[in-house]
Amino acid sequence: MAGRLLTYEEKDTWIHRLSGVTKLAFFLLWSFTGMLTYDTRVLAVMLVLSLIIFKTSRTEWKQVGTVFKFILLFLCLNLVAVYLFSPQEGTAVYGTSTVLVDMPGNYDLTLEQLFYEFNIMLKYLTVTPVVLMFIVTTNPSEFAASLNRIGISYNVGYAVAIALRYVPDVQSDFTKIKHAQEARGIEMSGKASVWERLKKMSMIIFPLIFSSMDRIDVVSNAMELRGFGKHKKRTWYKGKKLVRNDYLTLAFAAVFMIGSLWITFADGNRFYNPF
């Protein structure tokens, strides 16, 4: 089961050797670019680069497969919701209307709406590989030390590190509760419909929240008993200085963001319009 958890694994790749701060800065710049642009050309390049970065991190599919499937399911539901609540948003954005399928009321399926939702899908998919890569290639302890090195309070650094360490624990609890439900005869496998699985998965949320709160209480009490936060500074067992590859990665992220936003807003509109 451990191999299926979304958690840090030590590997000898150039991405693993980067500082945690570098990977966080890259993730933030990448996400910022993805949020601002609706230019399909930029998003397509970002998607290809994301997949290349993810591949070079040597992350195994069994590590992230389950999480990625949940993200895809959420994306599909989001796209359906966009169409249900704004069926003509694409027409309003691009200024034309190419009807593909006549539907009742205001729900005509247009090429512009499909293109608009395609861009939304690209925005999600460009960020997802980078998020997963950040989690599985960043040592929580080193990340906390790196944050403290650039001036962020070690209390904040530890909070982030504990959150990263806590991800596999939440996944483990989820799996245990899911197996317990299946042992009681509740069908949660692929044999059930998507709606039935979602409804039954929602029943896991409350016991998962309660078990998480118990663990938080245990950790906070243990840290308080050890006098955590008493001093303004602390020493670190792990920590990395920024080296050449870190600066090159940060420079690439900054230049790529500037170039992407320039291409996006060159015509005064962040939507690429092929119509």
UniProtKB/TrEMBL annotation:
Keyword Phosphoprotein: no
Keywords, ordered alphabetically: Membrane, Transmembrane, Transmembrane helix
One CC-aspect GO term: plasma membrane
Cell location: Membrane
Top-level taxon: Bacteria
Membrane topology: Multi-pass membrane protein
Full protein name: Energy-coupling factor transporter transmembrane protein EcfT
Taxonomic source organism: Candidatus Eisenbergiella merdigallinarum
